[in-house]
Amino acid sequence: MKKLFFILACFLTALIMSCGGGSEAEGGACESSFDCPLGQTCSSGRCVKPGSADDGSGEGESGSEDGTGGDGNNQGGGNSGGHDGDDQTDDGDVEYDEGPITGNCEPGKVQKCGYQGDPVTENVGPCKSAERTCKEDGTWGKCEGAVEPVYETGEELCTNGIDDDCDGEVDNKKGSCIVYWGTDDTGDTDTGDSGVIDVGYTGDYGDAYQLPIDAEICNDTCIPMKAECLSADIDEGASELCNQVDDDCDGIVDEGCPCSPGQTQSCFLGPKNYRNIGTCQDGVQTCKVTNMRATQGKWGECVGGIAPSLDKCDNADNNCNGCKDDKLCCAPPIDCAFDIGTATPFADKIIDGKQIYDTGHKFNDADTATWEWTLSQGPCDIVLGKVNSYVKAAKTQGELGTFAESDRKTVVSGVGLSQFKVKFRLSGSYKLHLKVTRENGEIHECEWIIKVESAGLRIELCWDKTGSHSSPTSGRDLDLHMGKDGKTSTWESGACYYSSKNPSWGYGDTQNYDKEGNLKTMKNPRLDMDNIRTAGEPENINVDNPNNGDVFRVGVNYYSWSDYDPSSLETHPVINVYCGGTLRATYGVDPQVTNFKNKNNFWEVVEVTWVGDYSSDACELNLKWNNGYIINSSMPSYTDW
Predict the structure, then answer these.
(1) What pTM was computed for the model?
(2) 579 lies in which domain range?
(3) What is the pLDDT of residues 617-629, one digit of tens each?
(4) Smallest Cα–Cα separation from 267: which of 319, 236, 302, 227?
């Protein structure tokens, strides 16, 4: 607007003087002192010598800031669109009349050309005056480089990390960017018409918009997504909000939503529009009951997964706002966006770190850096107390890495240990953390979720105490049983269990891995592991190719040769149900199965109805529950459900 005002003023005075023109002699027309010969100043539109009766320095009225007159103490008149003559103000885009060929200025001298913005904003943020330099012939060059305030509004100006309006506050939350901040001037949440607010740059999910190292070099054109959350006072227990996400961004998912005991679901700890963006991945939450008599439970905490975090220089979108390495303008030495893929039970999973670190050969030190791979606990560690995976350090330069277990985590580390090799016995989601430490101490880190998946129906049994079932002091052998309606008459006749590992249920063979890691033709159903005495081993039953509508029942039998001191033999089994590779339920964890300590005790767990083709994960679960888990003193009838 100020530029427009100045241009209009120039146009209206064009008949009596040129816009931005100069004068060689005293009394010549001028717009500012820059238009006058050396040693003269612009006063009331005329070039005069300083101190003369016409320069406005004496008593009497002179031009005020708005050009209508002043108090006489200001030097210069109201002839330059609102500034005094000493301000030397003009638009940075205007080409000034260079005046005489020689004698106007000292070559090389730099001079400010004034400032068109509000004076209080000058030298605040990026705002600054223009400058002009005296050329070799003694005449002034063009005024260049002025930066004036720009009102902060919209995506381009409210999310760029720059104080565009030069008010001393970057992307000001109390000014024109209040919609971006999600609050009004009173600090109240502003939901607008849609009921959705933007929590924006709160720090809860990492700083989404970081200042560039060099804006001219950065050239980051990616516009980050705003973090959207519903108002904090909403009821997430409402059915339409029982949706596996943290709608109000309070760190709790689906609070108040009803669920069936043991049921599990995917969950995401972060703004709903950040889900599965960048490095962000879902965790898992389990339906918990407060007491054994409860028929419905409430969702527990969301565990595992990867939530938004502060963005860093790693080629990945860590804060999950749609832009990787937000305005960091860097050349990352590590690629945390690398896709490590999924894994299959019993098959070797190998990750080549040289595809992740220093792929651009910036350092060429992959063989001298120290590599540390950390694998999180698995889905049965809550009862078994150890990681359920074989972890083998790959040989690098003839050396094996060191191996350790602590806090139910597996750590493999070593110099040059760039390859990570693991074999999983249990399905589920495991968090893998990589830390590369260079010889100079510089550290680069990444984190992923490894999903261990198997097609079809997979039932996994874990328990906390195993040992020789022939010993009178440690007989804690449990057996997993599964039957199919129409094929099974008792839990032993026509069922799949240790004594009948491949009953005939009419399914064809499939290609899969055996427990030794060999890919081969496998029968369905099949018990792939029968754990008798090895602590930490699971038992698993698989049907790779179930049909739509097939119904299966699952139970656990306490098999032991002795009833010696039953109080010391109590064990706590856990059943995990996977459909299409997705954990659909975990039974026995909360509350723990109790009084499971005598030979022939039998736990009727769940009935599973398969929905869709073999790759589906939409199975239906009917928990066997009556004031808690059903524990029978002896093996019941299969049809008694």
Answers:
(1) 0.66
(2) 457-632
(3) 889 999 999 888 9
(4) 302
